């Protein structure tokens, strides 16, 4: 009961989708669309569980007088506040007159979520600079190749400063070298990596839909 | 000069319909500067920003998946099927472009409802077997989707795509005259595609593990590593480009809010420099405040240490 | 380890901050040469006959909007300039707000009418699964449009569209990662021979060269591709974008000095490291 | 030629079975009628069983499955299957030994993705091996995780590792720590461990995203030997530039096969190798044909080269 039925479900759904992919029949498209909808519904509900986990851990830290508990309260307030506004927008409750359907959630999105996420990622520009000085060493032939190619591509992607003599010619030359490196050498490397990754996905996918790979079940 | 020009229309203090409002400007500047303050040291401003980010982020993605996965795929689907089954309805529904009897549509979709409910059991009894049925279904569907799609486009069509880059193109002139034309010549074309072909073959051979390493395989693997390292170099170059594009955009956003309309100070009398107004504009004022608080905290810690 | 690397890395952070802020306030840009794959992104759109329907996917979020929003808005300008009709979808939840704000600003400039010149179908969950469904049958993937919540088939723009991308001349995606252009190629390009164009973030751009030009007709990669494409669209007759273009050119100049600084840091870091090792 | 005979047989088999199954299913689902049966198997086959555009993918999947099955059964029967040396693996013992001499802990970061990502599952297999080595050397092993489900898997792997080394007492529950489920908060937490507890060996194996740069740099600055590995290519440039040893792309999957010698894994690697060699052969044939038929190809005339590449596109050229 615990393991046989789930594995049977995985194999049945996996083979149904595979049959639907290869079969030209109209019935295949219906089967494919239905199973895709199942996956979407289950994935959405599974995502709701993510909230339960986050709330449980935050409440545990608040009750345990964790030094950061004031921030955990802030986390829960902003989360449930945005959830409440979002739900009202989706179902159209308490809609202020003159405002579009999604304006309230868009406002929270633009003033809270957008600046926070993009600034978090922009910190990496600083970390790359400190890593460039402190950690990127030409310790081996391979690492040296990487740093040289990286520098070449960096220079080939940007306009040359105008005070540089012949900046236009140098700029075009570097861009041509970078284009050759990208289209042919990087093209070759990427193709090999992509074919390798596809074989990995094919192997793992086959083992999952034939019921051989079961490690995801033993949670 | 990139400093923002005066806003044409006067932005309201708070409005959810206007593209920009003063309260929004102050919030954006506070969160941007609070995250940047982490570069100096982890501090209360950063902790506020980090926890608001986790709260708002979790809520945002949950709303999207609720609206699409639960409302869209369940509620609206069942409603549509119900209308089709009703007296005026045709009894048939469209599913993936194929007409399907509405009764079947409801029956099949309720299986997804059942599986989702089994997933929720994990909230009450953590060790129970029920959630595994839902996870197993989802994993089976996604694994098959990925396997079929990627075998087609990343294996078969990728190899086929490489074949369509032949070594010889008879239509090209054999030698070029100036530098710009050299790329249109036969010699460059053949050399470039030879580099591509040999590069792919050697990189693939580098990832062959279970065959005995003869001289040929070891040599090809060496060339393969060179190709891979140049590829990683190219990716490194592009990552640097991307991160700085993002940083410049954040600084540009702060620049936009130095405009007078957002500042606490009233617009300057004609002719006098807007220095006071700039000082009290959201980015500048908040930056100074945060720096002051951190400096005072650092000084008091040094005295007490 | 070498003492050279023990010094406080915040000096480097300060150097980066001063460089970027200084150049942002006082720097000025210059036009760039256009790479072949960006030129073919422009030419593929230009070659479409008037009135063809284009599927435009906003697959990005705030974190990647800095690199993709300029190209997204320039593409909308370019499509409306060439009198092409746009069906907007998104496989990233954070996409639709950008679609709403961009069309609210750009559509009036071309007198575009919602429902016949463009339509917003909103977000579809399911990653590659969603793309497979959109490719398989667009009409059943979106029962209602995202703006008026009206039945999709009631809009004139959707009339000519049926399953397997029939009626859709071109697929363009603003791709920030997964799901993105690679999954569109797998789920749509691999099954229905619809031409695909993409604008991508810098991190994802190197992957695309393996697909160009056999499975991906053209792409505007990273801020560089965005700037070059903006130059082409302004030259094609979109004065409204001149401001954004000079902005982007000024940003590219900041990138130039930032890259020179990074290369300088790598070189000095290695020189000190090797001197330190030989000296110790 | 063997090929047409084989497809004829397969076609007949599929057409009858496939046709019946498809007919039953489409009747049940109520879609339009299926074409009459008497047309030759090839037309029926195209209508009912397999879309001709997908034929090459179908052949690829069936071929790969067959080779994998054969290789796995041979591996189970103990047929020796050599796996080439991977730099990062030999350095593992040396790195853990160094930590023991310096009396410092070992750090193992299993990536930041959930358990459904295959790289995270394989990272647990490697973690068990590293835990065994650490227990044998008697060095504490710290495992920070970002996902509560991965936490349970990691605890299990370390416990098993200590048992494998015959030292169940070496397992310290507090050393497997759930830090945060937010990417950069987790990264700040791991950086804190690197700076405070100063591990002398850092293993970073699994699925990483933008935070890999911060981990690699902080680890380098703390003076630890760093061995990193991931299958996805995006984070490899930073690992190669900042770490002592890097396990690249598919080498990552070979690590688990190399360490565990599990027949399933060995069979998979073997099948991937055989398919790669076949892809290389197919490419070489295409190159030769391409040179011979260059004029025809660019003039758009059908030639042996165009027929050959069409095979991979699945378009059956009706010449």
Describe the 3D structure:
The complex is a heterotetramer of chains A (219), B (305), C (280) and D (319). In chain A, 78% of the residues lie in helices and 0% in strands. With 219 residues, chain A is mainly α. Chain A has a domain at 137-219. In chain A, α1 (4-22) crosses α2. The longest helix of chain A is centred in the C-terminal third of the chain and has 43 residues, at 167-209. Chain A is extended. The two termini of chain A are 15 Å apart. Chain B is an all-alpha fold and 305 residues long. Chain B is 67% helix and 3% strand. Chain B has helices at 22-36, 44-85, 102-120, 130-163, 179-182, 186-206, 215-256, 275-279, 282-304; strands at 92-95, 98-101. Chain B has a two-stranded antiparallel sheet. In chain B, a hairpin with a 2-residue loop joins β1 (92-95) and β2. In chain B, α1 (22-36) crosses α2 (44-85), α3 packs across α4 (130-163) and α6 (186-206) crosses α7. Chain B is extended. A six-stranded parallel beta sheet of chain C has the order 3-2-1-4-5-6, sandwiched between helices. Chain C has helices spanning 10-26, 36-46, 62-81, 95-106, 128-136, 138-141, 181-189, 205-208, 222-235, 242-279; strands spanning 53-59, 85-90, 118-123, 170-175, 196-200, 218-221. By secondary structure, chain C is α/β, with parallel strands linked by helices. Chain C is elongated and about 75 Å long. Chain D has helices at 2-29, 41-49, 55-76, 87-101, 118-137, 148-164, 183-196, 212-221, 236-242, 251-260, 263-292, 294-299, 304-313, and strands spanning 106-109, 141-145, 176-178, 201-205, 225-230, 245-248. The model of chain D is unreliable at 29-33 (pLDDT under 50). Chain D has a six-stranded parallel beta sheet, sandwiched between helices. Chain D is elongated, with a radius of gyration of 26 Å. Chain D is 62% helix and 8% strand. Chain D is of the alpha/beta class and 319 residues long. At the B-D interface, α2, β2, α4, α6 and α7 of B face α3, α7, α9, α10 and α11 of D.
């Amino acid at each position: 009961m615990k393991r046989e039925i789930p594995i049977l479900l995985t194999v049945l759904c996996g083979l149904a989708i595979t049959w639907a992919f290869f079969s030209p029949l109209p019935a295949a498209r219906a089967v494919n669309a239905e199973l895709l909808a199942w996956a979407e519904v289950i994935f959405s509900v599974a995502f709701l569980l993510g909230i339960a986990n986050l709330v449980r851990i935050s409440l545990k830290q608040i009750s345990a007088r964790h030094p950061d508990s004031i921030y955990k309260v802030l986390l829960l307030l902003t989360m449930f506040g945005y959830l409440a506004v979002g739900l009202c927008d989706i179902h159209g409750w308490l809609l202020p007159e003159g405002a579009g359907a999604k304006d309230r959630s868009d406002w929270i999105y633009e003033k809270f979520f957008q600046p926070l996420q993009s600034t978090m990622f922009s910190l990496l520009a600083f970390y790359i600079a400190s890593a460039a000085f402190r950690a990127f060493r030409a310790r081996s032939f391979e690492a040296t190749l990487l740093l040289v190619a990286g520098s070449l591509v960096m220079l080939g992607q940007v306009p040359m400063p105008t005070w540089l003599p012949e900046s236009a010619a140098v700029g075009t030359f570097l861009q041509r070298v970078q284009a050759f490196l990208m289209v042919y050498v990087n093209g070759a490397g990427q193709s090999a990596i992509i074919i390798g990754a596809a074989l990995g996905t094919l192997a793992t996918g086959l083992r999952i839909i034939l019921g051989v790979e079961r490690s995801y079940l033993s949670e | 000069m990139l400093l923002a020009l005066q806003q044409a229309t006067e932005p309201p203090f708070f409005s959810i319909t206007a593209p920009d409002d003063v309260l929004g400007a102050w919030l954006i500047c506070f969160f941007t500067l609070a995250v940047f303050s982490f570069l100096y040291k982890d501090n209360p401003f950063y902790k506020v920003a980090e926890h608001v980010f986790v709260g708002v982020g979790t809520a945002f993605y949950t709303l999207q998946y609720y609206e699409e996965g639960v409302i869209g795929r369940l509620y609206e689907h069942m409603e549509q099927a119900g209308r089709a089954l009703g007296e005026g309805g045709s009894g048939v529904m469209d599913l993936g472009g194929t007409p399907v009897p509405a009764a079947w549509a409801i029956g099949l979709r309720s299986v997804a409802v059942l599986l989702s409910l089994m997933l929720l059991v994990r909230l009450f009894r953590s060790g129970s077997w029920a959630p595994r049925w839902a996870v197993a279904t989802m994993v089976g569907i996604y694994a098959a989707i990925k396997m079929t799609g990627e075998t087609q486009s990343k294996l078969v069509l990728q190899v086929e795509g490489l074949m369509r880059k032949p070594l010889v193109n008879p239509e090209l002139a054999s030698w070029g005259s100036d530098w710009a034309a050299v790329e249109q010549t036969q010699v460059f074309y053949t050399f470039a595609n030879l580099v591509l072909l040999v590069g792919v073959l050697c990189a693939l051979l580098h990832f062959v593990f279970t065959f005995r390493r003869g001289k040929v395989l070891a040599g090809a693997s060496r060339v393969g590593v060179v190709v891979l390292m140049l590829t990683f170099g190219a990716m490194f170059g592009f990552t640097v480009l991307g991160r700085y594009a993002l940083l410049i955009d954040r600084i540009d956003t702060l620049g936009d809010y130095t405009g007078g309309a957002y500042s606490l100070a009233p617009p300057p009398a004609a002719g006098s420099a807007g220095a006071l107004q700039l000082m009290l504009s959201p980015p500048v004022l908040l930056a100074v405040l945060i720096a002051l608080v951190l400096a005072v905290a650092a000084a008091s810690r040094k005295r007490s240490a | 380890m070498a003492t050279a690397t023990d010094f406080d890395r915040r000096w480097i952070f300060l150097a980066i901050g001063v460089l970027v802020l200084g150049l942002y306030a006082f720097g000025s840009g210059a036009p760039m040469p256009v790479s072949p794959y960006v030129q073919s992104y422009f030419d593929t759109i230009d070659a479409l006959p008037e009135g063809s329907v284009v599927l435009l996917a906003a697959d990005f979020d705030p974190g990647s909007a800095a690199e993709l929003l300029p190209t997204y808005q320039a593409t909308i300008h370019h499509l409306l300039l060439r009198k092409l009709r746009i069906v907007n979808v998104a496989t990233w939840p954070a996409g639709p707000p950008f679609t709403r704000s961009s069309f609210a600003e750009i559509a009036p400039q071309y007198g575009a009418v919602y429902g016949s010149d463009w339509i917003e179908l909103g977000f579809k969950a399911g990653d590659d699964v969603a793309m497979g469904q959109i490719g398989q049958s667009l009409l059943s993937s979106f029962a209602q449009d995202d703006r008026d919540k009206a039945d999709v088939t009631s809009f004139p723009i959707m009339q000519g569209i049926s399953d397997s991308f029939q009626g859709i001349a071109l697929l363009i995606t603003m791709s920030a990662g997964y799901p993105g252009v690679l999954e569109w190629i797998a789920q749509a390009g691999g099954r229905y021979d619809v031409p695909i164009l993409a604008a991508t973030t810098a991190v994802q751009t190197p992957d695309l060269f393996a697909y160009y030009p056999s499975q991906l007709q053209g792409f505007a990669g990273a801020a560089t591709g965005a700037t070059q494409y903006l130059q082409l669209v302004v030259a094609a007759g979109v004065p409204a974008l001149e401001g954004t273009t000079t902005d982007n050119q000024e940003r590219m100049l900041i990138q130039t000095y930032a890259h020179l600084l990074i290369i300088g840091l790598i070189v000095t870091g290695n020189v000190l490291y090797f001197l330190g090792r030989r000296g110790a | 030629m063997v090929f047409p005979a084989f497809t004829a047989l397969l076609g007949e088999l599929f057409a009858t079975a496939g046709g019946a199954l498809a007919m039953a299913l489409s009747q049940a689902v109520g879609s339009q009628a299926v074409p009459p049966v008497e047309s030759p198997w090839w037309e029926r086959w195209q209508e009912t069983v397999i879309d001709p555009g997908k034929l090459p993918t179908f052949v690829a999947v069936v071929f790969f499955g067959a080779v994998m099955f054969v290789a796995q059964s041979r591996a189970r029967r103990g047929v020796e299957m050599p796996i080439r040396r991977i730099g990062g693996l030999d350095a593992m013992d040396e790195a853990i030994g160094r930590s023991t001499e310096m009396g410092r802990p070992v750090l193992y970061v299993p990536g930041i993705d959930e358990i459904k990502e295959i790289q995270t599952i394989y990272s647990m297999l490697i973690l068990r091996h590293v835990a065994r080595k650490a227990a044998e050397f008697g060095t504490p092993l710290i495992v920070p995780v970002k996902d509560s489900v991965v936490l349970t898997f990691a605890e299990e792997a370390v416990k098993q590792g200590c048992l494998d080394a015959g030292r169940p007492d070496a397992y310290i529950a507090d050393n497997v720590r759930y830090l945060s489920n937010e990417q950069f908060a987790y990264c700040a937490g791991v950086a804190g461990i690197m700076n405070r507890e100063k591990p002398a060996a850092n293993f970073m194996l699994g699925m990483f995203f933008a935070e890999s740069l911060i981990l690699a740099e902080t680890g380098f600055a703390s003076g630890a030997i760093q061995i990193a590995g991931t299958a996805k290519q995006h984070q490899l440039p930073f690992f190669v530039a900042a770490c002592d040893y890097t396990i690249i792309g598919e080498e990552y999957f070979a690590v688990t096969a190399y360490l565990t010698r599990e027949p399933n894994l060995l069979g998979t690697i073997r099948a991937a190798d055989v398919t790669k060699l076949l892809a290389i052969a197919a490419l070489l044939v295409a190159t030769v044909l391409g040179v011979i038929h260059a004029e025809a190809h660019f003039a758009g005339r059908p030639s042996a080269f165009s027929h050959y590449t069409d095979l991979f596109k699945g378009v059956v050229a009706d010449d």
